[in-house]
Specification:
This protein is mainly α. About 30% of the residues lie in helices and about 5% in strands. It is built from two helices and two strands, in the order αββα. It has helices at about 1-20, 50-60; strands at about 30-35, 45-50. A two-stranded parallel sheet has the order 1-2. The radius of gyration is 27 Å and the shape is elongated. The protein starts with a helix and ends in a 36-residue tail after the last helix.
Amino acid sequence: MEQSIIRSKNAIVKELEEDIGNIGGGSSSELEIIESTDTETTPTDKNLYSALRAKNEDDKRLRNDIEDFAHELINFLKGTKFGEFIPGILTGKGG
């Protein structure tokens, strides 16, 4: 019985190794890499961003999980709320 379990495990391992070896085995011509300097290619299901392009795209967005800042003026078309505003030079708050 122990021998059959070992054979079964070996068969499963061999099958997994074959599957792992086939990862990425498809035609590389199916996927187009959009490079960091490419400003003309439209993203589709048949292309992907390079790591540098993905980083550059992420750098264009404000993050809420770390301290961040905007390089330009932000216009909120639907309005915004920043907390309580109390007018006054000495006792003022907000704004």
